[in-house]
């Protein structure tokens, strides 16, 4: 085992309206006490409304480190009561690991399921609407307190209290915290961009973004 954490909570969301326009979202996710089935497209019973930006095999499950809530409460003291488990729209609340400990491409054993870290989470307008300020969108990008998405390599069962064990790490130089800097427009050296274009486990969408960034850096032919 390379690194070990714990799944403190498993959370599932149902579609509901928010805001004056009644926009539908499953951002708010409630904790479940028992075992939850993990399927190729996510957790059984978890709804995903806007499938253009959420869900699918590359973003099947969203994990967030419990340690991150403290920094959010400190930065946004006026909204402190809104930051805690579930405030990010996360499915798994993870203890003992954060964006510095988890790497792009990591393969994890969670319960009986086998998961892989596929990319970071990018903030959206729904996150801002739930918290009550658009400032959180920029703050997530700037801080890198973004959490991570998983793809499902092997379906199984996850229960609160299960281990969150990294059993393989193909990219030891790419913690989520470093990748978040690239996503925010920093740390985009030529060497790093070349790595990202074929980085094992990284989503094809982000590999192509790295290709575009590399081409822009090179300039006109």
Structural class category: alpha+beta
Q: Secondary-structure element sequence?
A: EEEEEEEHEEEHHEEEHHH
Taking the alpha carbons of the first and last residues, their distance comes to 46 Å
Query: Outline, from the CA principal axes?
Result: globular
Biggest pleated sheet? 7 strands, mixed, barrel
Q: Estimate what percentage of residues fall within beta strands.
A: 25-35%
The main sheet orders its strands as 1-8-7-11-10-9-13
- Helix content range: 10-25%
Stretches with pLDDT under 50, minimum 5 residues? none
Oligomer: single chain
Number of strands: 13
- Mean pLDDT equals 94
Rg of Cα set = 17 Å
Helix count, per DSSP? 6
In short:
Helices cover 25% and strands 29% of the residues.
């Amino acid at each position: 085992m390379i690194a070990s954490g714990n799944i403190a909570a498993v959370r599932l969301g149902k579609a509901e309206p928010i805001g004056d326009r009644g926009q539908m979202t499953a951002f708010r996710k409630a904790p479940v006490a028992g075992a939850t089935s993990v399927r190729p497209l996510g957790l059984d019973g978890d709804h995903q409304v806007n499938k253009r930006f959420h869900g699918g095999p590359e973003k099947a499950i969203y994990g967030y480190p419990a340690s991150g809530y403290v920094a959010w409460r400190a930065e946004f003291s006026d909204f402190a009561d809104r930051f805690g488990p579930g405030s990010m729209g996360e499915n798994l609340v993870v203890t003992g690991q954060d964006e510095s400990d988890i790497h792009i491409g990591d393969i994890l054993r969670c319960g009986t399921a086998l998961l892989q870290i596929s990319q970071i989470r990018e903030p959206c307008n729904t996150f801002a609407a739930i918290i009550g300020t658009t400032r959180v969108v920029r703050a997530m990008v700037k801080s890198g307190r973004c959490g991570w998405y998983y793809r499902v390599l092997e379906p199984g069962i996850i229960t609160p209290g299960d281990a969150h064990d990294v059993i393989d790490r193909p990219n030891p130089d790419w913690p989520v915290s470093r990748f978040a800097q690239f996503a925010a427009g920093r740390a985009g050296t030529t060497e790093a961009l070349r790595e990202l274009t074929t980085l094992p486990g990284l989503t094809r969408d982000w590999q192509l973004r790295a290709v575009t960034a590399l081409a822009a850096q090179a300039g006109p032919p």
